Amino acid sequence: WAVTRGMEKGYFARREFSFTLRDDIYVRYQSFERPQDLEKELQKACPYKVDIGAVYSHRPSQHNTLRSGAFQAQEKELVFDVDMTDYDDVRGCCSSAEICSKCWTLMTIAIRILDRALVEDLGVQHRLWVYSGRRGVHCWVCDDTVRKWSSSLRSSIVDYLSLVKGGADTVKKVHLSDPVHPFISKSLRLVEEYFEQYALLGQDILGCRESWDKVLALVPEHILLPGSSCLSLRLGEGLAAVGKSRVRRWGGQEQEIMLQFCFPRLDGNVSKGLNHLLKSPFSVHPKTGRISVPIDIQRLEQFDPFAVPTISSLCRELDEANDEDKDKENEEDPESRRRVRDYKRTSLAPYVRVFECFVEDMERARRGELLRRSDLQGDF
Ligand SMILES: [Zn+2]
Q1: I need a labelling partner for 261 at 20 to 30 A (CA). Which of 102, 176, 212, 292 fits?
Q2: What is the pLDDT of residues 43-63, one digit of tens each?
């Protein structure tokens, strides 16, 4: 709720929420006068999932009463969605909805590349990275100015951040320009930090004939070793010989290969539209039961999707905490009976702390901005 302090009047009431209720009943255009009203409705309706939408010109709950065209999305966080299923052609360990600690490295790389670009190239400040609860991550960019960005600006940003092009039928999906754009060369430096450990050792992409054929398919014929009757095979042997060390042999080609294997693959449609809804942080994923928790990007390498609390682990922890309370009721000291907020007694607490830090940063920035504006007015 702290986020709404000092905000434009009526802003919260114009925000769309949508609920997924029992039996997949999907209710859009819900809106609430105050955060407390949303809280009450959540307790009453017990939605299976909550999605957050745009801030509209009018209250979403009244959108039916307006003449057509009057109801417009005005503001929305810029959001990004990276989903592991989009990497199926370049991960050997898992497919579709599965993930493991090996391929999770792809999400770590995606976050580092995108987050660096957001801050250094696009100048944004407030990013909240969230684990989706299953096989991907979301990013919410919440700066005041960014929330006002148009759809076409958002599309341009998605284009800027996209490099891997083409669907299942496209073999070679990365083609670098010469000279390489600084965004790409900086991203490549990040990929290089992981490539050997992740791709050469972890995924063992040169480990068998089938997987090196996939790599070889990305190398143009003319740079393969000359004088061989079976070029692909020769290069393959060469690669296997250099084996688990860095691939250095072919000029710029290996850069395109590294990027095809590791560069972030965005679901652009989620980012482009202002009225696209995205699952709220702290939702429970319906398939895994895992909570969609914020990721502390200062400790990104330590984030483990398999250690994230699930709805059943949280219920168990709360039951245990309640049992402890009952034991304490028999004690003399009333201090020991003082209750702390329930979530703080569960393994969700550190993730809530990440969220609180994010909100506190936004509040601090807003206070600074208000102060700066009032100082400016004082000068005139
Ligand atoms: Zn995997």
Answers
A1: 292
A2: 999 998 999 999 999 999 999
